[in-house]
Amino acid sequence: MRTxxxxxxxxxxxxxxxxxxxxxxxxxxGALDAGVTMVINQKGGHNYTMDNGIAMPNLWGLxxxxxxxxxxxxxxxxxxxxxxxxGAIFPTNGGGLFGRNAYVGVSNDQYGKxxxxxQYDFMIDSLLRFDNSIYIAGLYGFREGPFSGLxxxxxxxxxxxxxxxxxxxxxxxxxxxxxxxYGFSAGALYSxxxxxxxxxxxxxxxxxxxxxxxxxxxxVAYTYQRYAQLANGMAGIRNFGAGAEYKFGLAALNVxxxxxxxxxxxxxxxxxxxxxxxxxxxALSVGGDYELMKGNAVLASDKANQFSVGxxxxxxxxxxxxxxxxxxxVSGDNNPQAWIMAVSSASSNDRQLxxxxxxxxxx
Length: 363
What we know:
Elements: H1 2-17, E1 25-42, E2 45-52, E3 59-69, E4 72-81, E5 101-108, E6 112-120, H2 122-125, H3 133-136, E7 169-177, E8 184-191, E9 204-213, E10 216-226, E11 236-248, E12 251-262, E13 268-279, E14 284-295, E15 303-314, E16 319-331, E17 351-362
Antiparallel strand pairs: 1-2, 1-3, 1-17, 3-4, 4-5, 5-6, 6-7, 7-8, 8-9, 9-10, 10-11, 11-12, 12-13, 13-14, 14-15, 15-16, 16-17
């Protein structure tokens, strides 16, 4: 509690030290999520945990704007992710204080936004809204399975969050996003590899585009991040995808496709997802989701079928109670083991099930 007060006090002190300017602001915001999860078949047994950061990551952040005149604004955002159970900083992108997101830049309503720093790519910006997992099962609903041969460097299982949809920021990046014209918007990001004489080594790039018109919206995205551990920085993990949503009054139907490839070993995973969520009352919502993950021959043709269901009840605009369940069934050439995203270890056979009750509070 003292730490929270210290953060708030520091933010106020800094704000007071900056000369006042019309239409300028700094906002402190955050999210806290905790609950109890039961996993059936984790290394062959049941496991009960007080898990956190599932419906939404545990975050606190600062975002601000300064009116520069002529329709121009200076903008910034700093986001820290932490473990609510221990208070420790979450080891996102090396464990830096603001490893979740950190940027500064300028924006203009007519010309768009240009930012510099540690930033999300367009798999998040253009496609996350079509991933029904965010409405149903949170982190547990994203992608992981019997695909360790994908070999993502620095990844706990080699394939957790392989299509980047639960959020992986790209360091040392420059990002441009257009305004929305007649329902269309787009953007591009480039990350510098920092190797003298080899501009492409360890670099990253991402592109995205979106369209929205009434109840229909759609998006496409591409990201390619090279890693020093793959072909001396000249190979990496390539992602692309497309998604769409159609709203039927209080209900919505979402579809999503993603493709992930390690360009060093050609391991590839295709994901096909369909889901729906329905707002029964202003406070109560329900939803369901199905995902098929298919590895290629490099990954022993392993497949994972994953089903998610969830119920959320809003106590207020900022506080939500929820319950959810996720089931994964796998198959393939080498007797693969099921492994739901964010569970600390795989099952002992081809299936894994979890259930959870939790609370999410935003401030």
